[in-house]
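Open question from group meeting: does this chain pack into something compact, or does most of it stay loose? Before anyone orders reagents, we agreed to write out a predicted structure and look at it together. Recording both the input and the output here so the notebook holds the full record.
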Amino acid sequence: MSGGIDSTAACLMLQEQGFEVVGLTMRVFDVVSQLDEGGTPQFVNEAREVALRLGVEHHVADVRMEFRDKIVRYFIDEYMQGRTPNPCVMCNPLFKFRLLTEWADRCSCDYIATGHYVQTVCEDGYYYIVTGDDVLKDQSYFLWNLGQEVLSCCLFPLGGWKKSDVRQYLTDEGFELKAKEGESMEVCFIEGDYRDFLRCHCPDIDHLVGPGKFVDMAGRTLGTHQGYPYYTIGQRKGLGIALGKPAYVLKLNPEKNTVMLGDADELLTRYMLVEHLCLVDKARFYEEENLSVRIRYRSRSVPCKVLREVEEGKWLVHFGEEVSAVTPGQSAVFYVGNRLVGGAFIASQRGIGMWIDNVSKPCL
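Structure tokens returned:
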């Protein structure tokens, strides 16, 4: 229970379905602007108020230290390695759903539930995540590395709802003010620009990295940048350089502290490398004929084939059409229709040309 729109609606719906609900609020990171005079986050107060109003047993899990050591550290380290992290993908299995499972056992609960806009289905003994009916709110992209044991006991009451209907539902249930609340932050511990967060939590970053060179594809120097962690693949705005035409970030080189710039069409590719592939049904995955992949949260699914494991732990993926800005550190999430069948992290694309040249046939 975050105290927001979605968790409140999910709680209400479960109660209407006859479930006895126990609420768990996770205090993972304190954003100063959200603390009350006593130092308690506003979302914790709001969750308590909702729980009290609904007559729900409520608990708060304070895991701030562990979250900082794992998720915040991961977030910083990824940028320092020239990758673009996706903290929600890491937080869901390591914190949110792990804590829900632990507290469910502690409180003798049979199921765990969240306000995610996804659904689940069981086929041939496997539990699959299915995209939410609201395509603009679907959150399946962030849940690809949840295990079968967790999914087997998950309830997602909002999966078949559109966000506008959820707001109306809350209004009808007497939560009119709650229904009018805005959306939560995209990354719960980032308020504002992530670059400011990096400087705050890694104070020596500018000393460790420092300014570097903007270069073109031929290696020619174009200008000076602030340091590679402050840029991401595909970025166009905020580069601080004028070339007389739109320029995009093509590559980051942490070793040389260079940021390669180029034209939009130079971001296009038909291939990518992924690592840490996690599949629901391995045997069936390689037989799927209508496989597609999303390479960022807001992107659409693109037809693809997973061609082969080119080296241990790394796979080559072929897109059915050109895609733009393949970004190491982000997730590649695989679907068959609206059913999530696996996911992976986008790996460094260094050396991909060699593997593309050696492609002969899919490894099925």
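Observations to bring back to the group:
The radius of gyration is 22 Å.
The mean pLDDT is 94.
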